[in-house]
Amino acid sequence: MSIQEETVHTQNKIEVKDVCFDYVDKKSSFAALDHINLSIKEGEFICILGSSGCGKATLLGLLNGLNKAKSGKILLDGKPIAGPGPDRAVVFQQYSLFPWLTAKGNILFGIKQSGKKYSKKEREEKAEEYLRSVGLAAARDKYPSQLSGGMKQRVALAIALSLEPKLLLADEPTSALDVTVQAQVVREMLQVRKQFGMTILIVTHNIGVASRMEDHIVVMKNGEQREYGTRQQVIEHPQNEYTRYLLSAVPELEA
Ligand SMILES: Nc1ncnc2c1ncn2[C@@H]1O[C@H](COP(=O)(O)OP(=O)(O)OP(=O)(O)O)[C@@H](O)[C@H]1O
Ligand SMILES: [Mg+2]
After folding, report:
1. Mutation to probe ligand 1, out of 58, 59, 60 (largest number of atoms < 8 A from CB)
2. CA–CA separation, 25 vs 106, rounded Å?
3. Is the CB of 55 under 6 A from ligand 1?
4. Which residues on adjacent β-strands are paired with residue 227?
5. What is the pLDDT of residue 6?
6. Which one of the ligands is nearest to 48 CA?
């Protein structure tokens, strides 16, 4: 079936339908995703919550087009995802910056590579705007070796935001940040989402970050989707036993 034939009309930005994915090598096969279903509306800020190894990055890889599902369908704007594209930006868990470029230089490089036709002045303005937005204006001229882990992570996020993609996929974008900066970065993502009409999907194992979501949360365990709902449903009235277990494992939320 051709891509055109498979196109369906949908209002959703992303449709994940009954998706399974196995990591396969010569000796073994490992089922990393088991019948995942998601509907993400344009402009939504969705969070995938789950503990280590539950398949968060694997799902992100499918949405980015790096991996292909074993079965099921993933539609972006109603069309099957054929590979990575300029409409999506990814902040990887293992982000990398060029060590010979400053924080600002790394952002400028990212904008240049994006293929967007900005003038030099516009690139400068965007780099400054996004440095400010992640609280790094004062560190603009520092090299990665002079930045802390959290600062480097914020540069990687600023690069992704500065590309102003339609869909931002971020793998643990706040994991190396202290709690006050986490809150600031989540606020910034909410702000750019409104400003540019971005759809944002982040994966995290941090319930504090998930509880700041305005839209939906997906809870995953062992490649399975355990719960899907609004923040109020999932955090305040969890229906699933595993979600309740995750929440009970965070003593400060109970206070
Ligand atoms: N290339 C691979 N080959 C085989 N198995 C893999 C591969 N990559 C990941 N896995 C397995 O798939 C499962 C899901 O991995 P994934 O990286 O998606 O987890 P995650 O939810 O992002 O975890 P974390 O929170 O630790 O980053 C894990 O059990 C992992 O061991
Ligand atoms: Mg991961």
Report:
1. 58
2. 36
3. yes
4. 219
5. 47
6. 1
Distance CA 173, CA 185 (A): 9
Q: What is the DSSP string of 105-173?
A: HHHHHHHHHTT----HHHHHHHHHHHHHHTT-GGGTT--GGGS-HHHHHHHHHHHHHHT--SEEEEEST
Task: Check if 58 has its Cβ closer than 6 Å to any atom of ligand 1.
Answer: yes
**193 Cβ inside 6 Å of ligand 1:** no
What does DSSP say about strands 71-76 and 12-24: parallel, antiparallel, or unpaired?
antiparallel
Distance in Å, CA 190 to ligand 1 centroid: 28
Confidence at residue 251, expressed as pLDDT on a 0 to 100 scale: 57
In this prediction, residue 249 carries a pLDDT of: 79
From the CB of 221, is ligand 1 less than 6 Å away? no
Q: Decide: residue 47, CB within 10 A, 0-12 exposed, 13-18 middle, 19+ buried.
A: buried
Mean pLDDT by 10 residues, the chain (255 residues): 47 90 93 92 90 91 92 93 87 86 95 86 93 90 93 89 88 81 80 84 86 85 91 91 86 49
Q: Is the dihedral of CA 145, 147, 152, 155 positive or negative?
A: negative
Give which of 203, 166, 189, 191 is closest to 88, Cα–Cα.
166
Looking up tokens 């204006």, which residue turns up? 137
Tell me if 53 CB under 6 Å of ligand 1: yes
